[in-house]
Design goal:
seven-stranded antiparallel β-sheet; 2 helices; binds cobalt (II) ion
Length: 185
């Protein structure tokens, strides 16, 4: 397994519509394993193949138990090929999102509270996932990546986007307003 390079905002590969996975072979298994390792190495909760420069419909999602102690959905790793939203229900809720391809920014995005996702596991077996709250948000964010959509595209009001600034001495992170939606790295 290997930690892959994560491409950043400004790279055109983040804006391409990815193609469906057709072969559930060892190459796919290796890509999935590398994406899981890359997500964990970056302390992310999800990663989509376009973020490592691969224009294919594959996502990995994981809310680690130690980071989400109070959420019963935590502690499970999802690897989903060709994910599709089959159902969304409930209210739209606003919550903070960031993205490993847009480091240093967080913003408030409105997402549906509950979703059902269908797709295939790494062996090509159909799977279905019901997710709510933060896990639903992660799935929706990662599936967006497969269509070249980034969380900043959902932000129209700049007061809903903040920049994270880390003080190199104290290592403390503070938030600053931003003057414009970032469009390039
Ligand atoms: Co992202």
């Amino acid at each position: 397994m290997a930690v892959l390079d994560i491409i950043r905002l400004g790279d055109p590969r983040l804006r391409i519509k990815s193609t469906p996975i057709r072969r559930f072979d060892t190459r796919l298994a290796r890509l999935a394993a590398d994406m899981v390792e890359t997500m964990r190495d970056s302390q992310g909760v999800g990663l989509a193949a376009p973020q490592v420069g691969i224009g294919e419909r594959l996502i990995v999602v994981e809310m680690r138990k130690e980071d989400f102690e109070d959420d019963p959905q935590a502690g499970k790793l999802y690897v989903v090929a060709n994910p599709e939203i089959v159902r969304d229900r409930g209210d739209k809720i606003v919550g903070d999102e960031g993205c490993l391809s847009i480091p240093g920014y967080v913003g408030e995005v409105e997402r549906t509270e509950q979703v059902t996702i269908k797709g295939f596991d790494i062996n090509g077996k159909p799977i279905r996932v019901k997710a709510y709250d933060y896990l639903a948000r992660i799935f929706l964010h990662e599936i967006d990546h497969l269509d070249g959509v980034l969380f900043i595209d959902h932000i129209t009001d700049l007061t809903r986007l903040r920049r994270l600034v880390r003080d190199p001495e104290s290592d403390e992170v503070t938030e600053e307003p931003v003057a414009a939606i970032p469009t390039r790295a």
